Amino acid sequence: MDKALQTMINNMPEKTGKNLKEWLHILHKENIEKHSIAVKFLKTEYGVTHGFANTIVTLSKEQNETSEDLVVNQYKGKELLKPIYNLLISTIEQFGSDVVITPKKASVSLIRKKQFALIKPATKTRIDLGLKLKDIDVQGRLENSGPFGAMCTHRIQLHTIADIDAEVIEWLSMAYKKSV
């Protein structure tokens, strides 16, 4: 995601009164197909400026068209991992309404004001959970970032639903809290 777009998303709650996830939910409920009509709806019904309205509608269209497909494609041939992914997402959604779930081709980014975690089906038998936890030493199941490079500082390998235990949830929660 480019820096200007990320800044706009970060400023959205202050400038529009709602975060991106809330706006996407509103547009999803309205189910407006035409871009210009959706922009006009946000401007007239909610007083959103043209720049924010256009960005929200564009991101909504991208999400509606590709999010589900991207996740489905990530788990083709790795279907046994999908319940692990689903449990991670439902756990993370309980942290707060400000979490933006952004599927990409090979992974799913979890963003608050900044990205705090990444979920990647690494093999047919393992999900790598990347976490951004600056100034935290490797310990317990928390490993070096491995394949994530600069995106994440640490990684936890998950093989079964049982691997999403109190330790993993605590690390995820800490990454979420640090991402402001």
Reconstruct the topology from this structure:
Blueprint: H1 3-16, H2 20-30, H3 35-46, H4 50-74, H5 82-93, E1 100-103, E2 108-111, E3 115-123, E4 126-131, E5 143-144, E6 154-158, H6 166-178
Antiparallel strand pairs: 1-2, 2-3, 3-4, 4-6, 5-6
Helix pairs in contact: 2-4, 3-4
Describe this structure in words.
The protein is of the alpha+beta class. The protein folds into two domains: 3-73; 78-178, no CATH class. The protein is 48% helix and 17% strand. The protein has helices at residues 3-16, 20-30, 35-46, 50-74, 82-93, 166-178, and strands at 100-103, 108-111, 115-123, 126-131, 143-144, 154-158. A six-stranded antiparallel β-sheet has the order 1-2-3-4-6-5. Strand 3 and strand 4 (126-131) form a beta hairpin. Helix 2 (20-30) crosses helix 4 (50-74). The longest helix is centred in the middle third of the chain and has 25 residues, at 50-74. It is globular and about 50 Å long. The two termini are 17 Å apart. The mean pLDDT is 90.
